[in-house]
Design goal:
Helix content: 25-40%
Oligomer: single chain
Largest sheet: 6 strands, antiparallel, barrel
Shape: globular
């Protein structure tokens, strides 16, 4: 019998965990994330009707709502226990509205509860302190959804009309894209500046050696560019060489270094990127599993607190637990006299929740290692260490600076170093830095010296340097920048970065964001025609207003009215904008990028805009149905064109054919980078050509019907050259001969497995980079490099694959029509459900263990209908066709062969009739393709209008 109280949570995994904490008086059900959303069509938000909004159930929400309604019917009380943030409050509001509309329960019996961690004590405490749904948080959610919808469905169509080939624009996504594009522009215009430094080796009277750097010459302190060229450096060396040196001054001071605060969402994403190589999406997906609960020795427990937060505070209970653990494990010396209290520096932080921390600090990583996947363990260990370190004593360092001078003090050098006197929090954890920033504790330790000590001079080493351009953004540094500017929210960063990649506006190369030309065109268009709406301050101010709404200080519709009034005028201002005006503006804005000049090209006066075919026309930006390209101004007399995204050679000239890297030292064959229909690849040797005809003996039938043996020339093709695709994320322009040879040499042996002794190899196959161990194959993650992956990482990945492969198939029940079992399993393309010979993939993000028989039947029915539609047949209930990506049994394979044999015996008339039918159906297919394209455009707009919703909300 269902319990008299119903608790509604978001995910089935959370429901499963909480259900174990509560007694038989409670029934726990899942909403599977958001249950309603704005329909993906114009008019879902109506500014002319005071921003009235339409809502509709999601594609799969009706069944979930029916299950919730069934559980709620007759219940004494309903607790809405969705996540403790704005998005969770919104889901709770949607659920309460639906229950009210269905008149299933009185409003007074629906209450909201929140808990920051999924533990028995936290859940029970929440049930003792219920409240109403927060109207202020719901208003902030409504304002955010309306803003994102209005931008997505108003701005994206302008892009489609005025900039063919572009996908869509979003309120925060476009600002993040602008950051990436502007950083790339800085790199392109950067001019390296030469400078020199001089280091001198010395030895103390005791024989200890060290080095010092020249800092003063002729009484003047040298700045970074004081020695701009080799001549200046050689002159300085000449001044140093004849001099004797001694210790002029020794400065000693002690400094303290404090630990970093515990993790927020953004700092967790940044540090997981630096230390673990995780992308933002991977970090949040792993943290979600740790939060919702892991089976530890038969008990399901949440291992960390809620992972979407911008607060850095810890509960008093957590602080006391940390101090007790530090004292018992490392000693009282490592426990500060007073607990550390942190406050966030983020512009629009709410600090409504604790920082991310373990629910029980005494649950050490090594104790739970056997219950966790590799990613889960690594992330849990990172959170555990950071939390402990945040409550530990400061590190103490002795810093020493020694000035070394000539007798006349006209030449002065300085040596610096530091010694860790007390390691403090460094015993456990140290935060990494972005972009290779120098760490203070990495300085050298200097030998003992006193003022006046004579020093023996060693080698003098002048070194040439060049200034470096600003580094491209990593996921970590981009998240940090967005947070500093006050743009976006902690829960949205991962989805924003993912949308940029899904739209092909940017790509990740060596964990750095590089804008694609499509992304640069969109950014240039928005900067020139909608500049206000991609300004950093404007977007940050809008975020602040949303925060004021959540605090009850401003009406949400007032914010929408102010925004829409100006935005609508800006959009109307582009109605008369012609394609020619757009092209002229973008051509001027992006000309330096598409047509770079190179002073070192060796061709004085060379104009990169001159058409290489007719030598008369001017190259410029053109727009076609498929997007932008480069073309000659003399069209149609000159039909020269080239795509935008192409690599440049060393002289800045655009290459159109294969790029030669050199010759293979073993075979002497040329190695080239080429581009095919499926992307860039490496080729060893020239393209295949037909070899000289070889004489082959064949039987020829003369007119009399008698066969005689004769000779006929047959063409024999030369063997195809060896080819290998570039791994995803590797740019063709960055490939050199060494890298190409390594790729051509794949698969490579990594080593022998420590348990089986069998060889582990790495290679690139049809589905990308992989590992092979015996008969087991495992795809590499985007963060792994097929050329450098080592044995330890390979063993970890294979262990995960083996664990997944060893999971037995689970029977959900019998099919109601056939009586045959419906099972779940994991295959080459992920988890699936199976019935007879049909396989249907379980949707991405859905926990396989949470799939019910009813859900499986829906998936199987949809797959059967899809396959039947492809073949033009009605679906069969008992034996639907096998799904893509599943391994069909031998029975289905035999049936396929039998059909093929029968088809060969069909009369010619039947074949002719089929061809006629195909010709008649062609116009219908063309119309279908147009409809599909229109639907895809709508989907793009919907996705971008919803970009602020965290990806993790789409649970099933």
């Amino acid at each position: 019998m269902p319990g008299s109280n119903v608790v509604i949570v978001e995910s089935p995994a959370k429901a499963k965990t909480i259900n174990k904490y509560l007694g038989s008086d409670y029934t726990v059900v899942a909403s599977f994330g958001h249950v309603r959303d704005l329909p993906a069509r114009d008019g879902s938000v109506r500014p002319d009707e005071d921003f009235a909004m339409d809502w509709e159930l999601g594609d799969r929400s009706k069944r979930h709502i029916d299950e919730i309604a069934k559980a709620v019917k007759g219940a004494e009380r309903v607790y809405l226990a969705t996540d403790p943030d704005r998005e969770g409050e919104a889901i709770a509001w949607h659920l309460s509205e639906l229950l009210r509309e269905k008149r299933l329960i009185d409003d007074s019996k629906v209450q909201r509860i929140t808990f920051n961690e999924i533990t028995k004590s936290a859940v029970q405490a929440a049930l003792e302190a219920p409240r109403d749904v927060s109207r202020e948080l719901v208003d902030a959610y409504l304002a955010r959804r309306a803003l994102d919808y209005l931008v997505g469905f108003t701005l994206s169509p302008v892009l489609w009309r005025k900039l063919p080939g572009s996908r869509s624009a979003g309120r925060v996504q476009s600002v993040a894209l602008r950051l990436i594009c502007e950083r790339e522009s800085e790199i392109e215009v950067f001019k390296p500046q030469e400078y020199w430094t001089i280091e001198v080796g010395f030895a103390t009277p005791g024989g200890s050696s060290f080095t010092a750097q020249l800092t003063q010459l002729d009484g003047k302190r040298l700045d970074k560019f004081a020695l701009p060229a080799r001549e200046a450096a050689e002159a300085a060396v000449a001044r140093i060489s004849p001099q004797a040196f001694s210790v002029a001054t020794v400065e000693r001071k002690q400094s303290r270094r404090n630990p970093s605060p515990p993790f927020t969402t953004s700092t967790l994403q940044q540090e997981a990127s630096r230390k673990l190589g995780f992308g933002a999406t991977r970090t949040m997906r792993t943290a979600q599993r740790l939060y919702e609960g892991v089976d530890i020795g038969g008990e399901t427990v949440g291992l960390i607190t809620y992972m979407r937060t911008d607060g850095v505070s810890l509960s008093q209970e957590a602080i006391e637990g940390a101090r007790n653990l530090i004292g018992s494990h490392w000693g009282e010396r490592y426990v500060p006299a007073q607990p550390r209290v942190y406050k966030t520096a983020a512009k629009n932080a709410q600090e409504a929740h604790e920082a991310i921390r373990p629910t029980d600090l005494f649950r050490r990583p090594e104790e739970v290692a056997s219950y966790l996947e590799n990613d889960e363990l690594r992330l849990y260990e990172l959170i555990w260490k950071r939390t402990l370190a945040s409550q530990m004593e400061s590190a103490v360092l002795d810093q020493v600076a020694v000035d070394i001078a000539s007798p006349s003090k006209d030449v002065v050098l300085r040596a610096t170093g530091s010694v860790v006197v007390f390691d403090g929090f460094l015993k456990v954890y140290q935060e990494d830095r972005d972009d290779g920033a120098a760490e203070e504790d990495q300085e050298r330790r200097l030998p003992a010296m006193e003022q006046g000590d004579a020093l023996a001079r060693g080698d003098i080493s002048p070194e040439q340097h060049f200034t470096q351009p600003p580094p491209r953004y990593t996921e970590a540094s981009l998240v940090k920048k967005l947070e500093e500017l006050g743009i976006g929210r902690p829960s949205t960063y991962a989805s924003i970065l993912q949308v940029l990649q899904d739209r092909n506006y940017v790509r990740l190369d060596k964990r750095r964001f590089i804008p694609e030309d499509r992304g640069r065109l969109v950014t240039a268009f928005l900067k020139n025609f909608f500049n206000r709406y991609v300004e950093y301050n404007f977007t940050a101010d809008l975020e602040n207003k949303l925060d004021e709404i959540s605090d009850g200080r401003i009406d949400w519709k007032t914010v929408l009215r102010d925004f829409w009034r100006a935005f609508h005028v800006a959009v109307d201002g582009t109605k008369d904008l012609t394609i020619t005006q757009v092209l002229t503006t973008l051509d001027e804005e992006l000309g330096p990028h598409f047509f770079p000049t190179n002073a070192d090209s060796g061709t004085p006066g060379h104009d990169p805009r001159v058409c290489p075919v007719c030598s008369q026309g001017r190259l410029g930006l053109k727009l076609g149905k498929m997007g932008a390209f480069i073309g000659c101004s003399r069209y149609p007399e000159c039909r020269y064109t080239r795509p935008l995204a192409v690599a440049n050679d060393e002289n800045g000239e655009v290459q159109e054919g294969p790029r030669e890297l050199g010759n293979d030292p073993e075979t002497g064959l040329p190695v080239t980078v080429r581009r095919g229909p499926y992307g860039a690849y490496i080729q060893l040797g020239p393209p295949p050509v037909a070899a000289a005809p070889a004489e082959a003996v064949v039987e020829e039938a003369p007119a009399d019907g008698k066969k005689t043996k004769g000779k006929k020339k047959a063409k024999v093709e030369a063997p195809k050259p060896k080819r290998v695709s570039l791994p995803k994320g590797m740019a063709a322009a960055d490939v050199d001969l060494d890298t190409a040879l390594k790729l051509l040499a794949l698969p490579r042996s990594i080593g022998n497995h420590p348990e089986t002794g069998e060889e582990i190899s790495a290679g690139i196959g049809r589905f990308g980079p992989y590992l092979k161990h015996g008969s087991v194959y495992k795809s590499l993650t985007p963060d792994d490099d097929v050329l450098t992956i080592g044995i330890n990482r390979a063993v970890d990945l294979l262990a995960g694959a083996a664990k997944k492969a060893s999971a037995p198939a689970k029977t959900l029940g019998d099919h109601p029509k056939t009586g045959k079992p419906v099972t779940t399993g994991a295959g080459r393309f992920g988890p699936y459900v199976k019935h007879g010979s049909v396989y249907a993939s379980i949707p991405k993000g859905t926990e396989p263990d949470s799939v019910t028989l009813e859900q499986a039947l829906e998936l199987l029915e949809a797959k059967a209908a899809k396959d039947a539609a492809k073949k033009g047949k009605a679906p069969k209930d008992a034996e639907p066709a096998a799904a893509d990506g599943a391994e069909a049994p031998a029975k289905a394979e035999k049936a396929t062969k039998a059909k093929a044999t029968t088809a060969k015996k069909e009369p010619a008339k039947k074949e002719s009739a089929k061809k006629d039918a195909v010709k008649k159906a062609a116009p219908k297919k063309a119309a279908t393709k147009k409809a599909d394209a229109a639907e895809a455009d709508k989907t793009d707009a919907k996705t971008d209008a919803s970009e602020e919703k965290p990806a993790a909300r789409k649970r099933a």
